[in-house]
User: What shape does this take?
Amino acid sequence: MKFMNLFSKKQMVGAGFLSALMVSTAWATTAGGGVTGTEFLGLFNMLVGWAEGYLGKALAIAAFVTGAIVGFAKSTAMPALIGIVFAIVFGLGPTIINGMFAAVI
Assistant: This one.
């Protein structure tokens, strides 16, 4: 039995609306700056350090090399391009995310 057959379209739309409402409410409560969450600053700095540091670079290079090998085996460049996109996301991702949350609404 398919997943889509378990629920009606009205139930799916309602669940999607409620999910969007919960996410937007959570975002709105933290966007005002009332909750700083300084207790998570160490975790944040650690994850950014991993993504922009040697771990992120190693994962990006590994993704490119794996994609190049798979691309060579399949005679296509698409897996290698996915590895390059992965490297760009690791390099620029934390900066973009910081910019999104630091922007003044």
In short: Residues 39-105 form one domain.
